[in-house]
Amino acid sequence: MAHGSMTTRFIYNHSPWLFQTLIASYYGIYKSFQKFGDSYQRCFEHINKSQWFSAAQINELQLRELKNVIGYVYQNVPYYSELFKRLNLVPADFQSIDDLKKLPVLTKEDVRANFERLTPGNLSPKDVITEHTSGSTGKAMKFLLSKDCYQKEYAFLRLQRTWAGVEDDDRVATFGGHAVIKIDRHKPPFWINNYFEHQVLFSSYHMSERNLGFYAEKLIRFNPDLILGYPSSIYLMASYLSRRNITVVKPKAVITSSESLLDFQRKLIEQVFRTKVYSYYGNAERVSNISQCERGGLHIKPEYGIIEFLDENDEPVEEGEPGRMVCTGFLNDAMPLIRYDVGDIAIPIQSECACGRSGPLVKEIVGRTDDFIVTPNGEHIGRLSQVFKGIDAVEEAQFVQNEKERVIINVVKRADFSEHDSKAIIYNAKDRLGDDIGIELRFVPNIRRHANGKFKFVISNVAREI
Fold it and tell me: Which residues contact 447 (CB under 8 A, 6 or more apart)?
């Protein structure tokens, strides 16, 4: 699977399928001990109740959590202790959520440059997990996550599932970013069974027209209660089923994450699977969460953190206008981030949801759509930011495809970039795109933005039919 070193992944990739299935099930058991504990249970009980709080109760909750975070970082995080002193601020200066404006916006570059000083000194290493963001723009970043926060994250995932009518022991078909099967596999199975968690992990990297029939057969046999994963992959599956008038797969719900769910994708997925699609937004830094309810509202979860929607001048945008999501997280004591620009864009709205839950809403999350790369065999591969996961020496990167047999990866190197990093990038890319496609690294001083200032991580000029 897409975990561990190149050596462990090599062993997994070259093991028999049955052994890979045993590993996946064992991994499910191992992860369950990390996911489900006292913090998970307490958090779920809290948010299951607080989802029905009034607007006044939500404001009170957020202000209390904000004061807790401010006091914590002032005492324990060198970066913020120094920042507060430089700005002549103390925790008592934060008596409303609007007081957050007294602090500057924190960028990804700030975090990378100040990693050690953003690390609190009061936590034991045994209570901390080191993780990496893959970076939707190719900018990888290392960060720390408390085990307590890790469990709370799964409490929010459980709440999203309850909104969708899904039970804890329901069967789950997952179409995600993990490379569960080696990319050069040409015959089924293109999936791995995780028996412990009643889950089938489908590869998102083998979904060619030639292979989708095998996917359909497995999906029908498994008969999932929930389909979970990338909207682009689930859409490919739904499109295949639609063209063949296959309507026997009817889960309780579909939950999409990690990419923007486009309107045409939602429409077809709901039509084919005859169920609701729920969009779930989160980020690896654990600073914000947006969950879609049964009535379609996209709810900012106030227990998770505060989201400000800002323009290019760091001023609040008007209702209905797209804004940068600048987030202050409440859950992660191992690396609390205040006014952190996650690099995503959403449209805030002032309205009440028909579900009866109070709190802020967004109309749309508009900033997380990945393009596909098309392999010579016709597979449509997205979410390629995983290629750079754990590689901190890349400042920025971009995929460019002008022909099916070749992909160029433009890389802006950092000073500590090494030959090992080059090999890791090529290995990771081939792990996802296969050996039949040529990978060329081009080292460039910078990557050109479009006229509107936007950065495009994947540029594919190969005609695609989905």
Answer: 396, 397, 398, 410, 412, 455
